[in-house]
Specification:
Layout (H helix, E strand, L loop, with lengths): L1 H9 L1 H21 L4 H5 L6 H16 L2 H18 L6 H28 L5 H27 L1
Length: 150
Protein backbone atom coordinates (compact mmCIF):
# COMPACT_ATOMS: atom_id res chain seq x y z
CA UNK A 1 0.00 0.00 0.00
CA UNK A 2 2.85 2.40 0.81
CA UNK A 3 4.46 1.85 -2.59
CA UNK A 4 1.15 2.58 -4.33
CA UNK A 5 0.70 5.69 -2.20
CA UNK A 6 4.25 6.81 -3.01
CA UNK A 7 3.68 6.22 -6.75
CA UNK A 8 0.45 8.23 -6.68
CA UNK A 9 2.11 11.04 -4.73
CA UNK A 10 5.17 11.13 -7.01
CA UNK A 11 3.14 11.15 -10.22
CA UNK A 12 0.02 12.98 -9.01
CA UNK A 13 0.42 15.86 -11.47
CA UNK A 14 0.95 13.58 -14.46
CA UNK A 15 -1.92 11.29 -13.43
CA UNK A 16 -4.25 14.26 -12.92
CA UNK A 17 -3.33 15.75 -16.31
CA UNK A 18 -3.85 12.40 -18.05
CA UNK A 19 -7.22 11.88 -16.38
CA UNK A 20 -8.28 15.44 -17.21
CA UNK A 21 -7.37 15.15 -20.89
CA UNK A 22 -9.07 11.75 -21.15
CA UNK A 23 -12.24 13.06 -19.49
CA UNK A 24 -12.39 16.16 -21.71
CA UNK A 25 -11.92 14.06 -24.86
CA UNK A 26 -14.49 11.51 -23.76
CA UNK A 27 -16.98 14.20 -22.72
CA UNK A 28 -16.70 16.06 -26.02
CA UNK A 29 -17.11 12.82 -27.95
CA UNK A 30 -20.23 11.91 -25.98
CA UNK A 31 -21.70 15.42 -26.30
CA UNK A 32 -21.25 15.38 -30.08
CA UNK A 33 -22.77 11.92 -30.51
CA UNK A 34 -26.19 11.92 -32.13
CA UNK A 35 -28.18 8.74 -32.39
CA UNK A 36 -31.83 8.47 -33.21
CA UNK A 37 -34.03 6.37 -30.98
CA UNK A 38 -34.40 3.83 -33.81
CA UNK A 39 -30.60 3.48 -33.95
CA UNK A 40 -30.44 2.97 -30.20
CA UNK A 41 -33.16 0.33 -30.22
CA UNK A 42 -31.58 -1.59 -33.11
CA UNK A 43 -28.04 -1.56 -31.78
CA UNK A 44 -26.33 -4.91 -31.65
CA UNK A 45 -25.13 -5.95 -28.21
CA UNK A 46 -21.48 -4.94 -27.75
CA UNK A 47 -18.82 -7.57 -28.37
CA UNK A 48 -16.72 -8.93 -25.54
CA UNK A 49 -13.80 -6.91 -26.90
CA UNK A 50 -15.83 -3.66 -26.84
CA UNK A 51 -16.97 -4.37 -23.29
CA UNK A 52 -13.40 -5.11 -22.19
CA UNK A 53 -12.17 -1.88 -23.82
CA UNK A 54 -14.85 0.20 -22.09
CA UNK A 55 -14.09 -1.46 -18.76
CA UNK A 56 -10.37 -0.75 -19.21
CA UNK A 57 -11.09 2.90 -20.06
CA UNK A 58 -13.28 3.30 -16.98
CA UNK A 59 -10.72 1.58 -14.77
CA UNK A 60 -7.94 3.79 -16.18
CA UNK A 61 -9.98 6.93 -15.49
CA UNK A 62 -10.58 5.80 -11.93
CA UNK A 63 -7.02 4.75 -11.16
CA UNK A 64 -5.47 7.88 -12.66
CA UNK A 65 -7.60 10.14 -10.50
CA UNK A 66 -5.53 10.84 -7.37
CA UNK A 67 -8.50 12.46 -5.63
CA UNK A 68 -10.46 9.22 -5.90
CA UNK A 69 -7.57 7.12 -4.67
CA UNK A 70 -6.75 9.44 -1.79
CA UNK A 71 -10.46 9.54 -0.95
CA UNK A 72 -10.58 5.76 -0.74
CA UNK A 73 -7.37 5.71 1.29
CA UNK A 74 -8.90 8.23 3.70
CA UNK A 75 -12.16 6.30 3.95
CA UNK A 76 -10.41 2.97 4.54
CA UNK A 77 -8.00 4.61 6.97
CA UNK A 78 -10.91 6.02 8.98
CA UNK A 79 -12.78 2.73 8.79
CA UNK A 80 -9.67 0.92 9.95
CA UNK A 81 -9.53 2.98 13.12
CA UNK A 82 -13.27 2.89 13.82
CA UNK A 83 -13.83 -0.77 12.98
CA UNK A 84 -10.51 -1.94 14.44
CA UNK A 85 -9.67 -3.75 11.21
CA UNK A 86 -6.29 -4.88 12.50
CA UNK A 87 -7.93 -6.82 15.35
CA UNK A 88 -8.54 -9.85 13.12
CA UNK A 89 -7.05 -10.94 9.80
CA UNK A 90 -10.44 -11.38 8.13
CA UNK A 91 -11.79 -7.88 8.91
CA UNK A 92 -9.99 -5.98 6.12
CA UNK A 93 -11.12 -8.64 3.63
CA UNK A 94 -14.72 -8.32 4.80
CA UNK A 95 -14.52 -4.52 4.55
CA UNK A 96 -13.19 -4.59 0.99
CA UNK A 97 -15.74 -7.26 0.05
CA UNK A 98 -18.51 -5.11 1.53
CA UNK A 99 -17.43 -2.10 -0.50
CA UNK A 100 -17.20 -4.23 -3.66
CA UNK A 101 -20.63 -5.79 -3.06
CA UNK A 102 -22.09 -2.35 -2.36
CA UNK A 103 -20.63 -1.02 -5.61
CA UNK A 104 -21.96 -4.01 -7.52
CA UNK A 105 -25.41 -3.56 -5.96
CA UNK A 106 -25.39 0.12 -6.98
CA UNK A 107 -24.54 -0.67 -10.61
CA UNK A 108 -27.11 -3.48 -10.74
CA UNK A 109 -29.73 -1.06 -9.39
CA UNK A 110 -28.80 1.56 -12.02
CA UNK A 111 -28.91 -1.08 -14.76
CA UNK A 112 -32.34 -2.22 -13.57
CA UNK A 113 -33.68 1.36 -13.57
CA UNK A 114 -32.30 2.05 -17.05
CA UNK A 115 -33.78 -1.22 -18.34
CA UNK A 116 -37.20 -0.25 -16.95
CA UNK A 117 -37.11 3.33 -18.25
CA UNK A 118 -35.54 2.78 -21.68
CA UNK A 119 -38.90 2.34 -23.42
CA UNK A 120 -39.99 5.79 -22.16
CA UNK A 121 -37.00 7.67 -23.55
CA UNK A 122 -37.63 9.59 -26.76
CA UNK A 123 -34.96 10.34 -29.34
CA UNK A 124 -34.87 14.01 -28.31
CA UNK A 125 -34.49 13.11 -24.63
CA UNK A 126 -31.75 10.64 -25.50
CA UNK A 127 -29.89 13.41 -27.36
CA UNK A 128 -30.25 15.79 -24.40
CA UNK A 129 -29.00 13.12 -22.00
CA UNK A 130 -25.98 12.54 -24.25
CA UNK A 131 -25.22 16.25 -24.57
CA UNK A 132 -25.52 17.00 -20.84
CA UNK A 133 -23.62 13.90 -19.82
CA UNK A 134 -20.84 14.80 -22.23
CA UNK A 135 -20.77 18.40 -21.01
CA UNK A 136 -20.58 17.28 -17.36
CA UNK A 137 -17.80 14.77 -18.04
CA UNK A 138 -15.83 17.37 -20.02
CA UNK A 139 -16.42 19.94 -17.25
CA UNK A 140 -15.02 17.55 -14.65
CA UNK A 141 -12.04 17.00 -16.94
CA UNK A 142 -11.48 20.76 -17.21
CA UNK A 143 -11.70 21.05 -13.41
CA UNK A 144 -9.00 18.37 -13.09
CA UNK A 145 -6.81 20.17 -15.65
CA UNK A 146 -7.36 23.54 -13.96
CA UNK A 147 -6.55 22.02 -10.57
CA UNK A 148 -3.38 20.40 -11.93
CA UNK A 149 -2.14 23.51 -13.73
CA UNK A 150 -3.02 26.14 -11.14
Amino acid sequence: VRSIERFITDYALLLTLAAGVLMVAMGLRIARTHMSLAEVQTLEPPSKRQIARKMLTTFTLTITNPATLFGFLAIFGTMSAVLKLSAAAYRPLLTVAGVAIGGLAWWLFLGFIVDRLKSRISGALFDRINKWTGVLIAAFGFVLLFDAIF
